[in-house]
């Protein structure tokens, strides 16, 4: 898009902003904006960006129990107020579960006999977003360590810990995805969002491991899965401090581990062992996707 420069005074020039931009960024007459020079570009940023409120209505009669999935994703999309139509209190149970387990920033502000209004009462800023992203990484490292301990001692308490860590991860990933959509779009925002989403999916695999409660695995499969955990940890470390040597090490290990898993799957394994081998392949590929997203979002100087 091109805009014509306007002479405003003897010492200043100006340009007009397109109306679609002012609507998108909720800019009004008298608002301040920041102008910055970055990499031979001029960036225009709202000084204190506050997006226009987004409201929507959904109906439990249409979605049934799926309402418990629709509601969290509308929150991630950035809606501030969600009106839910219902017929009986039991229709709202999936919503209550979602708020308890994941959508922690929403609370009920009004309830009538046929509808309920839920509203976000808290948001996080960019600094808090960075801190929570790191907490997600540390939760994953903790989960990796607990699986390695379980492979050594089969302590069932560790499986309960994994499920609790996955629930905590769901809350943090939800907060991050919502914040990314609520804040001004930045370069690589889509990569950042996808990274958080993929971390949540990787967390599901840890939950599936815990629920499978694998027992009586042979030593080859135990050794294999322990090495898968070590390889996953490399990607978490790369996120915290980029290291191309670790990236190369991960990729070399990934190829060997996947080939090994496919060979082991051809053996006569018990169901627990097959479950773990399938999770091995799933986790390793998700980690590869995460590494690709790191490549796509880091600054050029790190290469």
What descriptive keywords fit this protein?
flat, alpha+beta, Pemi-like Protein 1, Chain: D, Methane Monooxygenase Hydroxylase, Chain G, domain 1, 8 strands, 303 residues, Translation Initiation Factor IF3
**CATH architectural designation of the largest domain:** Up-down Bundle
The domain tally reads: 3
**What share of residues are in beta strands?**
5-15%
Question: Helix content range of the residues, please?
Answer: 55-70%
Radius of gyration: 24 Å
The count of strands amounts to: 8
- Annotated CATH topology of the largest domain: Methane Monooxygenase Hydroxylase, Chain G, domain 1
State the low-pLDDT regions, or none: none
Report the sheet with the most strands, covering strand number, pairing sense and barrel closure: 4 strands, mixed
Measured between the Cα atoms of the first and last residue, the distance is 32 Å
Quick structural overview:
This protein has 3 domains: 6-46, Pemi-like Protein 1, Chain: D (Ribbon), CATH 2.10.260; 55-120, Translation Initiation Factor IF3, CATH 3.30.110; 126-302, Methane Monooxygenase Hydroxylase, Chain G, domain 1. The protein is 58% helix and 13% strand. The chain contains 10 helices and 8 strands.
Question: How would you characterize the overall build of this protein?
Answer:
Helices cover 58% and strands 13% of the residues. It has 303 residues and is α+β, with helices and mostly antiparallel strands. It folds into 3 domains: 6-46, Pemi-like Protein 1, Chain: D, CATH 2.10.260; 55-120, Translation Initiation Factor IF3 (2-Layer Sandwich); 126-302, Phosphate transport system protein phou homolog 2, domain 2 (Methane Monooxygenase Hydroxylase, Chain G, domain 1, Up-down Bundle), CATH 1.20.58.220. It has a 4-stranded mixed sheet with strand order 5-6-8-7. A two-stranded antiparallel sheet has the order 1-2.
């Amino acid at each position: 898009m091109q805009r014509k420069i306007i002479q405003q005074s003897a010492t200043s020039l100006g340009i007009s902003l397109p109306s679609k931009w002012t609507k998108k960024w909720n800019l009004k007459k008298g608002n301040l904006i920041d102008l910055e020079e970055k990499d031979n570009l001029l960036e225009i940023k709202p000084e204190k960006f506050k997006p226009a409120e987004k409201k929507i209505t959904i109906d439990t009669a249409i979605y049934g129990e799926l309402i418990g999935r629709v509601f969290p994703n509308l929150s991630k999309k950035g809606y501030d107020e969600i009106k839910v139509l219902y017929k009986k209190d039991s229709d709202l149970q999936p919503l209550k579960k979602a708020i308890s387990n994941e959508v922690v920033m929403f609370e009920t502000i009004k309830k009538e006999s046929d509808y309920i209004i839920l509203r976000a009462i808290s948001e996080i800023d960019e600094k808090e977003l960075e801190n929570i992203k790191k907490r997600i990484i540390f939760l994953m490292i903790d989960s990796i360590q607990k699986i390695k301990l379980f492979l050594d001692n089969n302590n069932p308490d560790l499986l309960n810990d994994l499920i609790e860590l996955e629930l905590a991860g769901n809350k943090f990933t939800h907060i991050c995805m919502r914040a990314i959509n609520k804040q001004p779009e930045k370069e690589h925002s889509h990569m950042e969002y996808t990274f958080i989403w993929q971390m949540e999916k990787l967390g599901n695999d840890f939950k599936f491991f815990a629920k499978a409660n694998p027992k009586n695995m042979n030593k080859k499969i135990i050794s294999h899965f322990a090495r898968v955990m070590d390889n996953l940890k490399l990607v978490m470390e790369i996120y915290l401090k980029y290291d191309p040597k670790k990236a190369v090490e991960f990729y070399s290990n990934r190829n060997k581990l996947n080939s090994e898993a496919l060979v082991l799957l051809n053996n006569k394994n018990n169901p627990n062992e097959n479950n773990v081998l399938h999770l091995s392949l799933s986790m390793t590929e998700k980690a590869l996707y995460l590494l690709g997203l790191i490549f796509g979002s880091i600054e050029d100087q790190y290469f």
